[in-house]
């Protein structure tokens, strides 16, 4: 049901049982996966098994899932998606500049039917683990960078060989909501729609990111208003028309996306240029630093 | 025509001629201005002379102008607004996660009719100058903070008594666009609609910020699409229905806004709490740092 990406092989966060599944399915999915992270490949094709089509009343959105970083969350989200669980649910908590959150009615039978998930907000890295570095001494992390087009934070251990890494809450990331307890996420999820709430890093599980149609996420009806303004009627909340794995969408309606390969030399060059700001527009140079959440990762539609 | 806020008195960026105007108008505007930045006042009422009503086809937006930081830009923008200059112009450069930019047709007679503006992107501070501090060693600035609800960066001079301060490009800020030359802005302006492009700080003049209806700015039609997608027809670009100084709007249609007084003890307390993250939700504490662009400044509608 879920295609495991080859990249997951060296992911130390993976549980033993998932590793077994992976061993069995790796060969089968080599082609379906379609990932090409070689240094000379500017673009990376997204697997249809690993891509979600979210249809909103006002537009279509494509999400890339991140099973290499949060396999259990992706597995559950994919399964619910295939069951049509999210169809007709509402974005019931939408705060401008912060998040757009959706899910079934709190405490309903449907809501309680879904198993709770163990946190997958960060993972241990070994000395073979690599990423594309962006910035040292970022306000929220010792190091920032990208892996597989996902923005991340990294903190080395004292031994210098191992460390901890985590996906970071940039605009467009998709994460699972939870109650106060760490391992209390189930089906409710949110998109980040404003300035990166990095204080949620490492305590919320990010499991995907928007790769197409982010403007439609930004147009979701806000549910919270400023004091003194008219409340928004819940009947006006934005509903999910449907949520489908792209591989389950009829061929004619599939949206095929490629994203910038952040492991490429091309991307590394782009980071160097972005930091240097050599264009004549910069008559005075900004500090030579990069906010990992302010580096747009390009997508292109190939079909 | 433009109400000068009392706070401007101690703004060293102000030109001599504007100071003269201020001296003449200060008494007159004491009441119209309505600012109350005393430490025990949680809210600050916005002057109708210093507030702009932007009517979009899909909603109403209120902008607070910042004459105390960029008087010349505010004067020109206000004058153009009162002339109906922006009515029916389009948001012709709208890039998701970055900016929504509007203005007259490039190179048109209307476009060329507007005087160029000298940059007002930063100002010198003296030792009496104060602000509400937020964070040291921010990625882009030695210090960050707020003054009059505007986010800013600050860098002390070697003498420790003086320094430079600048408004910073948080989501919702309004700034004047320009060509490559520093002093080439005239009438084209942009809203920041994504992760703060802080590399534009100090080289672009910010002159206001959205205090109401930001969700409508986020819903402006994007004009740039991903590669391989259908181009957006220019007839579908979002048009400005009207742009008016709030004081010129008929009473029944005025929107009166108060914003959080960032000079208040209440706000200082809120910063302490936000940094500490003491709620049970934070089962593991994030780093005790604050991104100045990720601190929502509350607004409320009072009429």
From TrEMBL, chains A, B:
SUPFAM superfamilies: Cyclophilin-like (SSF50891). Its EC number is 5.2.1.8. Residues 48-247 form the PPIase cyclophilin-type domain. Keywords: Isomerase, Rotamase. It comes from the Bacteria. It is an enzyme of class 5 (isomerase). One of its GO terms (molecular function) is peptidyl-prolyl cis-trans isomerase activity. PANTHER family: PEPTIDYL-PROLYL CIS-TRANS ISOMERASE CYP38, CHLOROPLASTIC. This is peptidylprolyl isomerase. It comes from Colwellia psychrerythraea (strain 34H / ATCC BAA-681).
């Amino acid at each position: 049901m879920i295609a495991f990406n080859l990249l997951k092989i060296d992911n130390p966060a993976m549980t033993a049982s998932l590793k077994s599944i992976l061993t069995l399915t790796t060969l089968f999915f080599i082609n379906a996966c379609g990932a090409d992270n070689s240094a000379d490949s500017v673009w990376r094709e997204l697997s249809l098994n690993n891509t979600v089509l979210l249809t909103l009343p006002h537009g279509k959105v494509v999400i890339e899932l991140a099973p290499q970083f949060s396999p259990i969350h992706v597995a559950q989200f994919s399964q619910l998606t295939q069951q049509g669980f999210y169809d007709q649910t509402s974005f019931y908590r939408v705060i401008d500049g912060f998040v757009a959150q959706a899910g079934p009615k709190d405490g309903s039978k449907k809501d309680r039917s879904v198993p709770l998930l163990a946190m997958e907000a960060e993972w241990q890295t070994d000395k073979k683990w690599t990423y594309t570095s962006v910035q040292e001494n970022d306000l929220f992390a010792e190091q920032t960078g990208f892996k597989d087009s996902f923005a991340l934070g990294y903190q080395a251990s004292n031994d210098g060989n191992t460390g901890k890494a985590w996906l970071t809450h940039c605009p467009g990331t998709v994460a699972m909501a939870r109650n106060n307890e760490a391992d209390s996420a189930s089906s409710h999820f949110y998109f980040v729609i404003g300035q990166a709430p990095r204080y949620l890093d490492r305590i919320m599980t990010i499991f995907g990111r928007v790769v197409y149609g982010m403007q439609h996420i930004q147009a979701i009806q806000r549910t919270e208003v400023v004091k003194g303004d008219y409340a928004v009627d819940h009947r006006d909340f934005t509903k999910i028309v449907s949520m489908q794995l792209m591989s389950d969408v009829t061929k004619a309606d599939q949206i095929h996306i490629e994203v910038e390969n952040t492991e490429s030399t091309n991307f590394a060059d782009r980071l160097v240029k972005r930091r240097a700001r050599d264009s004549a527009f910069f008559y005075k140079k900004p500090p030579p630093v990069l906010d990992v959440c302010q580096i747009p990762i390009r997508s292109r539609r190939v079909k």
